[in-house]
Design goal:
alpha+beta, 5-stranded antiparallel β-sheet
Length: 89
Amino acid sequence: MNWTRKDEFHSVSDEGYLLRVFKSGNVVKFCAWAPKVKVFFKMHYALGEGVPEESKHLGCHDRPAEAIAACVCHLEAINSEVSNVSNMG
């Protein structure tokens, strides 16, 4: 996974994953986000029905390597699902 640093607080992978740095006092967190996907929103949702997310938060971590690992794990899981579906036919 190749990363491009956009500015002091944002890096983006070639696959569209986003790594954001949050600083508050002495606390620094590295938050990972999955790529944005196209979703179609409805006008009304039934009680208990999930509302689709545009981008999935993969967690906040103490080190950048942990946040990147979350992105890699998410990408591998998606690729595994796609492979399983294509092998069904």
